[in-house]
Amino acid sequence: MNAIGVIPARLGSTRLAQKVLLDICGKPMIQHVWENAKKAKMLDDVIIATDDEKVADVAKRFKAKVVLTSIDHNSGTDRVIEVVNPLDVKVVVNIQGDEPLIHPSMINALVLALLDNPDLVMATLAKKITDENDIHDPNIVKVALDKYDFALYFSRSAIPYNREPKAGFLTQSHYKHIGIYAYTKDFLFTFMNMPQSKLENIEKLEQLRVLENGYKIKVIETKFQTKSVDIEADLDVVKGLLGSEKKS
């Protein structure tokens, strides 16, 4: 296979209980993610990776392929690695289970980036920030890019920092990071063997481990807006957006 998508779906979320199973417009959130991922033409398969029978049972009802993983994993990436270990595949896309607005073209762009350039080992997504408040929101991860669209740094802080702030300040250099990742399978196992890094532990951002070990992350700009669901307010926003789509 050229590429597969894996959706880690842990039931025991802390900030919003059992969020992957919460109802959004008549479907559990994980079903919205899976249905959008299935529309990505560059994926040969989509697998839900979960540590809980309850999630597995729900996923099987909407005909998803499910793999039950260990309950001892520290991250979704570890869950992805367990799933892909026995598979013969070139590219693996880690699709967050709390991204019900993910667009298939976002996934396609990541897969194409890695398949078209054998020198790349990892890619992710970003969108230009259009709301100044987002620059200063620590819940929104920002990414700074070099001139070749490789990540220089990821942070919850405002990067780049504007030394001379003005009202309504926005530049073409402020990007929101969208936490969907594509890796070559070989690099995914390289990543697994890297110890957690200093900056990763400070920012609580797993992707910084890659940069600290000297590897590059290609960043693909997307025009599509997404909304990850972390708290109840996020759920309300997503319900409103999906409801608007159905009416239009």
UniProtKB/TrEMBL annotation:
CDD domains: CMP-KDO-Synthetase (cd02517). GO terms for cellular component: cytosol; membrane. SUPFAM superfamilies: Nucleotide-diphospho-sugar transferases. GO terms for biological process: CMP-keto-3-deoxy-D-manno-octulosonic acid biosynthetic process; lipopolysaccharide biosynthetic process. Signal peptide: none annotated. It is found in: Cytoplasm; Membrane. Its EC number is 2.7.7.38. InterPro entries: Cytidylyl_trans (IPR003329), KdsB (IPR004528), Nucleotide-diphossugar_trans (IPR029044). Pfam families: CTP_transf_3 (PF02348). Pathway: Nucleotide-sugar biosynthesis; CMP-3-deoxy-D-manno-octulosonate biosynthesis; CMP-3-deoxy-D-manno-octulosonate from 3-deoxy-D-manno-octulosonate and CTP: step 1/1. Transmembrane segments: none annotated. Keywords: Cytoplasm, Lipopolysaccharide biosynthesis, Nucleotidyltransferase, Transferase. It catalyses: 3-deoxy-alpha-D-manno-oct-2-ulosonate + CTP = CMP-3-deoxy-beta-D-manno-octulosonate + diphosphate. GO terms for molecular function: 3-deoxy-manno-octulosonate cytidylyltransferase activity. Its main location: cytoplasm. Activates KDO (a required 8-carbon sugar) for incorporation into bacterial lipopolysaccharide in Gram-negative bacteria. Belongs to the KdsB family. NCBIfam families: kdsB, PRK05450.1-3, PRK05450.1-5, PRK13368.1. This is 3-deoxy-manno-octulosonate cytidylyltransferase.
